[in-house]
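Field reference: sequence -> structure
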Amino acid sequence: MTWEPRPLPKRYPETRPYWEAAARGELRLPECADCERLFFYPRGFCPSCLGSDLDWRPLSGTGTVHTYTVVERVPGWPEDALPVVYAYVDLDEGVRLPTNLVDVDPDDVTVGTSVDVRFVPTEEPDVAVPVFTLAE
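Structure field:
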């Protein structure tokens, strides 16, 4: 699987550790050193206490589907890139992450399905996108 035809993610200085980790095949999120809150989306401050002392915590990459939707048609996309399964995944560490489910039959997905992270390379050599697939 390749990431294209989806657009490449935008990268900002505050999200650099997230994308660098993904390119290495690791899922990491910021955790506030002041209030110990782990959060997504990556940003330069804690959304809970506004602290800026952040540590980038490695995560297990496992979780469950919180909700999902199946998109059958996307104008301009090739048939082999469809359907697209968009989901929110509740990571085991307690963070909810928007993502794609890949290499799945949409009929096999339900709320509560266990999933594991994997990383899809892009046409940019230093960018990989975290996605999820059904747990084995």
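Note: The first strand starts at residue 28 and ends at 32.
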